Amino acid sequence: MKYALILTDGMADEPQAALGGKTPMEAACTPNMNRLVPNSEIMELYTIPEGMPAGSDVGNLSVIGLNPQEYYSGRSPLEALAMRVPMEASDVTYRINLVTLSDEPDYEDKSMVDYSGGEISTEEAAQLIAAVDEALGCEQFRYFAGVSYRHILRQKGGDVVEDFTPPHDISGRPIRGHLTQNEQILDIMKRSYDILKDHPVNLARVAAGKRPANSLWAWGGGHPAQYPSFQEKYGMRGLMISAVDLLRGIALGMKMDVVYVEGATGNKDTNFAGKGQAAIEALKTHDFVYVHLEATDECGHAGDLEGKIYSIEQIDEKILGPLVAELEKGEEPFTIIITPDHSTPVRVMTHTRDGVPCLVYRSDAPVSNEEGVEFSEKWAHKYGRHLRACDMLPEVLKK
Question: Which residues of the chain, if any, have pLDDT below 50?
Fold first, then answer.
């Protein structure tokens, strides 16, 4: 048996007046998903346990079968693991976004203009993080450059403080009331603004009509954690395909193999076709592949309804379609799983705690659904089986 899990990050949404009351999932043209639906189980997964943050870290741990209430220790340690940041058990890591803040004189009076620093490139970001590390780096605090706006601050020793706000939760809003009470970290954020606002990279971006990545914003703190290996847990070889360090960190923590796809950006301009081909190749040598797509989530955060629909259609056309066609050529049975890790409605532009629809298709045991079954938020909630997300994959892989 071959298994492919297609994780459509933040794909679930709300009915949209602009779409005649349909959600982006319902409005998108998805012939390949639609072809599987009549013979698939459609269920609703609860990916975010009560009292835990509604983030991709918690959601993806759930989907891969690790109960976050047992294994979650913060988002940043997973990203730091993928970035090969040297860590000891007593260290604390923080995710630091390069963000765009407004230009009021006092830091506390600024607003969150853009949580992604104008979708800054990885090459530009590396220069900015290097400048911060040169100015502020010390034995206690070091700064590590990641992909685009996503980076890591490592603190030697200390406790994890829980009052940090993800920057994408306050898009377009004043930051006052959302600033950490951790004086050391807040001081770093303030000083980073003075370092970055006139950096040559940002001056060039402004001259080109782009937003400057003019401040660090810390959040997602945590200590390193230990995870069971995928092989030990499921008895098979697993491989991860993702553009973002968070998912690569989960994979490396579970001793899964990781594939880096050229042109994979984590946004709607990502190399969808390349990810699809990478999944096909991976299943020639591995039993299980986890294909993570960030574009649907990024479009939700940006309030980009058109982009979200486009991303869903690209996933269907360039990943699911070729993958199923290739698997159907072979004699070995296969299972396809499609699910978001959480909802990211374009209206609120952040994650919500709603259950999400999940499709499970088994070529050797197709379901015979009645006419009218849909792969949608509404159908899954009203008619589907309801399941904790962390129970779904263990159930599917043991059948």
Answer: none
Phi-psi region of 129 (alpha: psi -120 to 50; beta: other; left: phi over 0): alpha
pLDDT digits (tens, 9 = 90+) for 363-398: 999 999 988 899 999 999 999 999 999 999 999 998
Q: pLDDT per residue over 154-192, tens digit each?
A: 999 988 877 899 999 999 999 999 999 999 999 999 999
Class of domain 2-71+227-398: alpha beta
pLDDT of residue 258: 96
> Nearest CA to 214 among 198, 225, 230?
198
CA dihedral 259, 265, 268, 271 (to 10 degrees): -50
Burial of 89 (C-beta count, 10 Å sphere; 0-12/13-18/19+): exposed
**Whole-model pTM?**
0.84
> How far is CA 191 from each of CA 136, 186, 217, rounded to the nearest angstrom?
8, 9, 11
How far is 377 from 189, CA to CA, in rounded Å? 39
Per-domain boundaries in the chain? 2-71+227-398, 82-222
How far apart (Å, rounded) are the C-alpha atoms in residues 101 and 331?
55
DSSP 181: S
Sequence-distant (≥ 6) Cβ neighbours of residue 293 within 8 angstroms: 6, 7, 8, 9, 270, 272, 275, 311, 315, 319
Distance CA 236, CA 288 (A): 7
Question: Which alpha helices (DSSP H) does 285-399 contain, by range?
Answer: 295-301, 305-315, 321-329, 377-383, 389-398
